[in-house]
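ingest -> fold -> write
write: protein_1
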Amino acid sequence: MIRVLLVDDQPLIRSGFRALLELEDDIEVVAEAADGSAGLDLARRHRPDIALVDIQMPVLDGIETTRRIAADPALADVHVVILTNYGLDEYVFHALRAGAAGFLVKDIQPEDFLHAVRVAARGDALLAPSITRRLIDRYVAQPLDTGACPGLEELTTREREAVTLVAQGRSNDEIAAHMVISPLTAKTHINRAMTKLHARDRAQLVVLAYESGLVTPRPR
């Protein structure tokens, strides 16, 4: 059973998502909150698999809520998915850096929304390769200061190669083809790299790859 926490200040949005989710046999909505502070308390109480968090809320916004969930070791298994009306805007970029597993635009189709919840619950990043490439564009447009990344020196050559390909926006199948390995082996390299770099998910792995200097974006 996938346990979901809804955090959004719009009651109609929450009720719509709840109605859709509760039609599914494998998904349960465990709690709702109208602001980030209440959402954080409920996350600590219920330990959901997924926290669907609106980007803009009173009291505590989605970015700070995400940051506090990601920083709490007790909530390490909670995957934050950001809800936004605007696609990949500046707020979403900062939310991904704060530790979000991905994002969803609120006008998403119901079947895509349900698929996304299941993808996030598996621990896979909710970032299509096209979205990853847009993140890369963001780094090219405004590079951030690089710095030390604990665990980087522990990566094997193959793990570094896999991380580099992830940061280029490649899918697991594309990484496997490039490295001439199976998709399962590619995923294993990625998962081991995530563990060594203390990345919560694939989205954070991309961010760490650029911030550590492991991957340097090339101007387009």
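write: protein_2
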Amino acid sequence: MYYDSKIIHKEWITHDVLKLKLEKPKTFQCKIGQAIELSIDILGSFKHFAPFTLTNTNEDDFLEIIVKVYGEKKRLTFWLSELPLDSKIIISEAWDSYEYKGSGVFIAAGSGITPFIPMIRSLSKANMLGNNTLIYANKKQEDIILRNELTGLLGDNFLNVLSREVTDSCLHGRIDRPFLESRIGNKRLFFYICGPEGFNYSVKENLISLGIAEEKIQVA
């Protein structure tokens, strides 16, 4: 099933990442960790759909997506960034992506952080963040999505790792086996991984090599 919606808010949150709030259709239902397919009407054609994680919480009366914008005109994200407010969009039913199973470590790279944003927000609202940790890989500080919000929610449990910039406020390097070995003490936690395919594979294999049970690791 598909629904008509429209853009009700646009905000650039990094140099190439856009936050969009969408009108929530009356009969649309979703839960934390789900995603949608989205398309737009450009020149009378909306045949191309692309997936986006919903970053709103269940209590919100709108839908929210965070979009990494690529400059090529053949990319849907470019046209999304060009649309004015109230532009019509088409969205699919929500489908399962990630499921929060318990306290653990979120490990993300770039726009792969999006599935974890609503989980962290929802846990905070319920006073259940506990010792959940977010380890977030980017190239430079300017690439960090929602840095202020996530720092406010997680404090010292928000670790930024930069591969192409050295700063006083972030770690430098990559989320490789030595890094994971130095940061992970409790191997009974849940581990949630999201990023490019190669990143996901590498982090998962490194966690398993460190003695983390595969059933404790979630990768979309």
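write: annotation protein_2
The helical segments are 76-82, 116-125, 147-154, 177-183, 197-209.
The CA atoms of residues 8 and 52 lie 17 Å apart.
pipeline exit 0
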